[in-house]
Design goal:
Shape: elongated
Largest sheet: 5 strands, mixed
Radius of gyration: 34 Å
Oligomer: single chain
Order of helices and strands: EEEEHEEEHHHEHEH
Distance between the termini: 83 Å
Strand order of the largest sheet: 7-6-5-8-9
Strand content: 15-25%
């Protein structure tokens, strides 16, 4: 809003007329009010950055690590010193177990693209392909983002998807554990379990591998 105030000018002599001088004063009050209203609107409607987090399954620890119930479609990773990773699929069976099962053997991998990344892509193939299918169908059907996210989460939690258990000994590093979690996220592993102690049999087999 602008106010125009007239002032000065007039006749200053006989027979001579001069144009009246005009002075302009701009009232900034309405503009300031509008600025505050817009600022309040954007503050209330904006979405602030949320801290990035990763969902983890942290079950109540059993009294003994040996009492941990078997995990369907489980893949267990054992982290130890020197950035070394050992893994096995399914249940662990010690040498001479009472079930008569062949003893579990540990396979070694590493944090390279052809190591852990390729292994997870292979083991988690069903989840990756199913997630891709659900996502493409959701885009075609123009589903809302929240609905599409729910459908994807169902795939990640399906019983056909693998469950990864991460166990560390006292020589593993936090960096290795974080790198492991990052790789699981990249490879769409939805069921991740960390914080479970190794059984004595697992620890003994790991020690034999790292000697």
């Amino acid at each position: 809003m602008a106010e125009i105030a007239e002032g000065g000018g007039g006749d200053h002599g006989k027979g001579k007329k001069r144009a009246k001088k005009q002075s302009t004063r701009v009232d900034m009050t309405p503009m300031v009010d509008l600025a505050f209203l817009l600022l309040t609107f954007f503050v209330l409607t904006s979405t602030f950055n949320k801290p990035k987090s990763m969902e983890l399954s942290l079950p109540a620890p059993p009294e003994k690590p040996e009492d941990m119930p078997p995990v369907k479609n489980g893949v267990t990773f054992l982290l130890t010193k020197d950035d070394r990773i050992f893994w096995y699929a399914g249940e662990f069976y010690a040498e001479g177990n009472d079930k008569g099962k062949p003893a579990t053997t540990l396979e070694e991998t590493n944090f390279s693209k052809d190591g852990l990344h390729a292994l997870l892509l292979d083991k988690n193939g069903w989840t990756i392909s199913e997630k891709k299918r659900v996502t493409e169908e959701g885009i075609k059907k123009k589903l809302a983002d929240t609905t599409l996210t729910k459908e994807v989460n169902k795939v990640l939690a399906d019983t056909k998807a693998i469950t990864v258990l991460i166990k560390t000994d006292d020589q593993a590093t936090y960096r290795n554990a974080i790198d492991m979690l990052d790789e699981l996220k990249i490879c769409d592993v939805g069921k991740r379990v960390i914080g479970i102690e190794m059984t004595q049999s697992e620890f003994n087999l790991l020690q034999a591998k790292t000697k």
